[in-house]
Model the fold of this input.
Amino acid sequence: MRPPALLAVDGGGSKIDAAFLRPDGSVLGAARVAARDYERTGDKPFLDAIQDAILAACADAGVDAGTGIVARRGVFCLAGADLPLDDRRISRGLTARHWVGEHVLRNDTFAVLRAGTERSFGVGIVCGFGTNCSGVSPTGRIYRLPAIGPVSGDWGGASEIGTGALWHAIRAGDGRGRRTSLQRAVPAHFGMRSARQVMEALYVGTLEDDRLAELAPAVFHEAAAGDGVAQELLGRQADEIATMATAAIRKLGMRDRTFDVVLGGGVFRNRWAPFFERIDAGVHAVAPHASLVPLTVPPVVGAAMLGLDLLGSTRAAHRRARASLTHERLSPQTRTRKER
Done:
């Protein structure tokens, strides 16, 4: 049997989604697996996780994974594809795996952008474990950020929010900082009695640093309950998101254009209205015709859209793929029930 036309993959800090599609947008199979070690996207652990997602999607689609190439073309939108040297390293890793006849590699921000808008241009922002931003102008010019941490001028994401929450909780406890409900909420999340216990656990290694990202929902909860310190921390995050978006808008000459700013990632899955209102105000101060679009569909939809664009598929094909590639369709529980 001839391999499917398209394999779409989206990979971030927490999960990897893979889907097989026909040129008419029909989804043959799809799967979601947990990610691992995305900071080194081109290395073996992350590539192995991508392979797990592909194999699960093969099983769902009835594609024979043992015959070599599983799709004629692949679109891979991956966190960690930040610098040109990353692109080269990751592309070598993808080529060595021989999953597809030819592949296209993009940062995961491009999947978010394409998943959230029907336009060919706009701005996409990811705020999950970390933050990143990309933009495409009406003429096809691209804006990208390095997004490799403080050394590239970055601030934000659940990791920074969680670290900031602990910072404020520690200072509130020892008298250096303002009183804040984070002093209670931070240790409570980890089943500890004090922020100092959390600090000590991090220091001796019984608690991994990246688990501080788990605190982001608690910070939103405390902000919504009226805690000023939590509100200021999230205000900084909102301002940083607006700053990234407006930098892209200025660089791409889109201040007077009508376009979408698509917001994807776990931090945007909160319901605290002032957070979005502050981002909206910051963006509209520079681009009054821009629209803020929190992403509700899986970002792998964007990878699929980019693939269908390359195949020259119809609008109906794009609509069909959008309607089929849902979070429920990708859920392992849903897939298990279907296979039964």
